[in-house]
Amino acid sequence: MLKRQMFSLYRYRRSAGAAALASALFPVAALAAAPANPLLPHDLSPWGMFVNADIVVKTVMIGLAFASLVTWTVCVAKLLELRAETARARKHISVLASDATLADAQRDSMGHKDPVAQIVQAAVAEATLSGGMRDEGFKERVALRLERAEAAMSRKIARGTGILATIGATAPFVGLFGTVWGIMNSFIGISEAHTTNLAVVAPGIAEALLATAMGLVAAIPAVVIYNHLVRMIAAYRALLGDASANVMMLISRDQGRPVRGSRAAE
Prior knowledge:
Layout: H1 2-25, H2 27-33, H3 46-52, H4 55-97, H5 102-109, H6 115-129, H7 136-157, H8 162-193, H9 198-253, H10 261-265
């Protein structure tokens, strides 16, 4: 009986030693053979982490994805609009520079709705209302009209860019809120599971950090695109200023000449 027990103990030690040696030599196979932990998520891809995330973190991620979509939509729309308006303004300014009088500029702007044509029409309207008086007060009134027209067109061309600044300023903080909420839930899960195993805690923290990553993905392009659009809008405003300057030079040339702009307007 004693010999049989000693033989069984010998066989157990031998099998345990063989298993330890196999685990040391083939760690991957040992991990594959280990039973899966039901507490761990099976998919740690970005989509899998989104699916397994808390409802609040999911809401934050969806909001940031929508903000990113809005950013690129505004980017494409404003780039196309600015390029088209800039090309039209440059073309009309080249025509305006070749005119000798305000009446010539009015004739060339007939039937056009671009900003330069509106600037010319504003000056012609003031010439009509002034009744042919081309004194210094007339030039001041025209300058005020042109300034108001430039401001209105600048506001129109800049419409929609403010949301990019809002997204760029708030998206990182929204993502941080999702991260803080996810980490808080992870710590609550640690206390409920009574374990500090990193393999159990890490997936929840990874899901929380994904919200911060999405916040940066939404914020960085928004800031870059906003700054680029601001530079393009500033160049567009400079073109409007050139058009106003050309109109004021035409008015200066008309000093002492017969009033042709008002007759053409009538």
